[in-house]
Structure formats: structure tokens, C-alpha cells
Amino acid sequence: MKKRILILGGGISGERSISLKTAKAVKNCIKKKYNCKIVEPDENLTKNIDRFSPHVVFNALHGRFGEDGFIQTYLESKGVRYTHSGVLSSMMAMDKEISKKLFIKNKILTPKFQKIKTNLNKKEVIKLLKKKIKFPVVIKPINEGSSLGVYICNEKNIINNLKKLKAYDEILVEEFIPGREIQVAILGKKKLGAIELKPKRKFYDYKAKYSSKAKTKHIIPVNIKTKEYQNVMNIALKAHKVLKCRGVTRSDFRFNNGKFYLLEINTQPGMTNLSLVPEIALHHGMNFFSLIDWIIKDASKIR
Description:
Layout: E1 4-8, H1 16-30, E2 35-39, H2 45-52, E3 56-59, H3 70-78, H4 87-94, H5 96-105, E4 113-117, H6 122-132, E5 137-141, E6 151-153, H7 158-163, E7 170-175, E8 180-187, E9 190-198, H8 206-210, E10 217-219, H9 226-242, E11 248-256, E12 259-266, H10 276-283, H11 288-297
Parallel strand pairs: 1-2, 1-3
Antiparallel strand pairs: 4-7, 5-6, 5-7, 8-9, 8-11, 9-10, 11-12
């Protein structure tokens, strides 16, 4: 008898459409081996879990309520085996302020940052940031993924960009680090590999990640020295361990003047046809089915 895999997809975050793409890609990949079903994390979730009685819940959700510890808390209360990181790891990774403080505490280089309120006036903002961080800066929500609501700002446009984030009471302002964009995948305790991105856009934003029209260039293997490659892989694994992550993670770096700056760690990386982790895995001899199957077999009730 085939094992039953319940795939959670959709949700109510700004990354809903990407989550559905991930869920469908996972289902299409494993349907020959497993009895699988995609469900929404809605008011019928408990009923669906009880009826389907899955051996494993594959968490294909992205963004808030899907990778911030919320759904993980629910799944642990249900006593079902589920994939990816657990409650605390997910919460810490999703909260950029908490994760960055942990990176700094553990001597992992990350851009300087400051949390600010979105209702400050221009004088207050510029005075505060000039004291703490030099322009240009990057502003972003504290707990969103997929580069949603991320803007590179100078003194002239920061207030207009802050207005775009008025739905959030507080946001994170980061020092802008120029340089190369390098992403590293970790699978369990294994350093899977790295990829470099050259977006046509200003940076690897939501459109660059998920639209083939953006024509982001993917470079693998990454053209850096062996010592540098080993260094960034070690940093990614260290960050994975610091946050006590499980399963698969993807760490996003900027490489500038010989230094790797860790921007964030993603505990629910995408699994679409443009996603980076499957591409990294394939380059290292692990096809999409083997990757998803590994994630399923790694599932547990307590993460």
C-alpha cells in the first residue's frame, strides 16, 4: 500500500501563488510512489488530516503562517509527522531581527540593521539612519519572505518607499551591501551546494525569483576560489545549526570585497521549476524526485 502524503499548499500570505506552484510540483513528482493530496491550511484542515490520516504532511507553504512557526505548532499539536524546520527554528528564521541578532552573537557576518517605525517623518528617519547606517539602505518587512516589500533606498526615495510598507508598524532597515548574490543549500547536515544569481533587475526580488521573463542568470558552479566556496558553505551550515533548522534550508548571501554577508536563511525554499534548491541538487547528482523523497523520509513529529 502506498504511503499517504498530505501536501499543504496555498495559504493566505503574499506568497500564496508560489506555494501552490510548489505543492503542485511536489505532487506531480511523487504521485507514482505515494498517495498524495494537496489541501489548504483553512478551517477544514483538521477534518482533512483526520480523514486522510497521512503518514507525512509535506509543508509546501511559504510566508507568514506557513514558515513562521504557526502551522508547525498546529502540526505538532496534532501529533503528525511533518517536513522542514520546527516551531522555534521557523519562527527565528522568519523574524529577520531575531535571526540577525543570533547571527551576530555567533560571529556570522550580516549587514548592519535598525528596526524603525513606518510612521516616522522624513527628518526623523534620515537622522536615525545616518547615525546608525549609511545610505543607500534596504528596507523590508521583518517577517515576510520571497523578497516581498523589499526596496533599495536613498535619502530621496526612502519616505515614498516607507509608505508602501505602511501596513507594517515596524520594518527592518539594512545597510545595502553591493556585490555578488550567492545562495547556498543545506540538506540535513549536508552542505549540498551553491549557485550565483545575476538578475537583470536591481536585485533578486520577487519577479526575479519567480518570473522567467525576468531572465535572471543562474551560474553553477559558482566561479569563486575553492577556499571561498568552502567558507560560504561552512557559514550556511553554521547558520542552519545556530537556528536549529531541520530538513532543507537555503541561505542568501552577498559576496563583497572577499567577505560573505548572510542576508537571511529560508526554511521553506521554493520547489518550482525556477527554484534554486532543486537546481543545486540536480547539479550535484540529486534529481527532483530524490530531493523530495529525502525531505519526506526526514519528516518527524517533533522537529
